[in-house]
Specification:
Layout (H helix, E strand, L loop, with lengths): L1 E3 L6 E4 L3 E3 L4 E3 L1 E5 L13 E4 L10 H10 L7 E5 L4 H4 L15 H19 L9 E6 L1 H12 L6 E5 L12 H6 L2 H8 L7 E9 L12 H15 L8 E9 L2 H15 L6
């Protein structure tokens, strides 16, 4: 059942139609397997869970994995790409919808990923278990979802990658001050006790949007990410050690995320020569 692009390359296996009891629908899930996987029956691999799995062909995930392996810049890994259906329902912040009532199923989506998808992947594939060997990634709303999941489940995910994260997600749209004050993820980080063990990578495009809520000359996409990082720093996380934020020339689009994808992959799972 594995569809192989070409010899000695990442292979892509589409799982049989995945019937989710929690979501009450069928999901498409593609699993990207390292080139050595079929022949090697003993090695277990780290795993990356990817939101918006339907975009992985457009950003050439398989090509990025192959080129980074060839350059010895990334450890071989399994990537589980979960196709989205209703993004504005499933992606968001668990238990708290935004001002428009969006993200109402974010908690159920998280349960689906943790209880159904991860369980199947760990049964069917040779993956290394535990947060140290498990990452999650996403862009835009999928990035917000990835961060929220990693933040709330640090025993499951040790690394998160967020491309153009929708950290503007808020509960009050009355005016600029209310929008600023009611951002959900900033409050969630601030109010979470302790210091979850997590490595966090963020990318913001300088042309992600044009909105500048407070008129300070910095677009909201960059400001929201920077101010989330400020909340993290107040909890003791440090740039360089725990946090990377790349502000790049780029837009809120797949070509930008495709360009940055290799940066995230080799940061998330660098090849360690022993």
């Amino acid at each position: 059942d594995a569809a192989t692009r070409h010899a000695e390359a990442t292979s892509i296996e589409r799982l049989p139609p995945f019937e989710s009891r929690l979501l009450g629908e069928t999901r498409i899930i593609d699993v990207y397997l390292p080139r050595a996987y079929p022949a090697d029956s003993s090695t277990a691999y780290p795993v990356i869970y990817a939101n918006d799995g339907q975009d992985m062909e457009a950003v050439d995930l398989a090509g990025a994995l192959d080129s980074l392996q060839d350059a010895k810049r990334m450890a071989p890994a399994i990537v589980v790409a979960i196709h989205a259906t209703e993004r504005i329902r499933d992606y968001g912040t668990a238990y708290i919808t935004n001002a428009q009532g969006l993200g109402a199923a974010a908690d159920i989506y998280g349960q689906f990923l943790l209880a159904e998808v991860m369980r199947l992947v760990e049964t069917r594939y040779r993956v290394r278990r535990g947060a140290t060997h498990t990452a999650i990634m996403g862009w835009s709303l999928g990035g917000l979802s990835a961060f929220d999941l990693a933040w709330r489940h640090p025993s499951q995910f040790g690394t998160v990658g967020v491309f153009s994260g929708a950290f503007w997600w808020r509960t009050d749209d009355r005016d600029a001050a209310a929008k600023q004050a009611s951002r959900i993820m900033h409050r969630r980080v601030r109010e979470t006790p302790g210091h979850p063990q997590l490595r966090m990578w963020f990318e913001s495009g300088q042309q992600d949007e044009g909105a500048d809520r407070d008129g300070d000359g910095v677009i909201d996409a960059v400001q929201d990410t920077e101010e989330l990082i400020a909340e993290l720093e107040r909890k003791g996380y440090r740039r360089g050690r725990d946090i990377v934020h790349l502000t790049v020339e780029g837009r809120h689009d797949l070509p930008t995320w495709k360009r940055l994808l290799p940066e995230w992959l080799c940061w998330a799972l660098p090849l360690r020569v022993t």
